[in-house]
Amino acid sequence: MKLIGSTTSPYVRKVRIVLAEKKLDYQFVQDNVWGDDTTVTASNPLGKVPCLVMEGGEAVFDSRVIVEYLDTLSPVGKLIPTSGRERAEVKTWEALADGAMDAGILARMEATWVHRSDEQRCQAWIDRQMGKVNAALKAMSQGLGDKPYCSGIHLSLSDIAVGCALGWLEFRYPELAWRTEYPNLGKLMDKLMQRASFADTKPGA
Fold it and tell me: Which residue intervals define the domain GST C-terminal in the entry (predicted)?
């Protein structure tokens, strides 16, 4: 398998962590989707990463679809329950974490995209998106409570998705004091960073 992605993308990191936790072999091909020389569109017409290319050339995207598929490839470290409320809970955690990243990226693009002038940038839009980020952080903290992991006592996709969101926010928005406001999230992140799958995929590394 070949994974096309970027080391700064939190969605790509989510897939890389799942691949590591599932002990699956793959080739990592870096691609800058904003560069003129991007090649991901040959596999994903949406021009987005991550994109998983199979041995036969078939492509799988986006990150939620990829991790769902990867979890079926090996019995090692089952990350997504097969059915029922437990499965819905894990997928909801993933949706919450991905939504926080979606909003954070939209705010960042509005503030930094080089093809938009300062006069064209909308602070109200940025504030709206960051409001979603802050609401998601509060919901994550409340949902985690004093549990060792987001969905019980074992690592699951819930924790991987949340860890990727927190790691990206720490990377792109260091001014956000979420560790101070939500110490249980900081404790979870510190625990996750002790795993090789997280330590080896720090944003930009």
Answer: 83-205
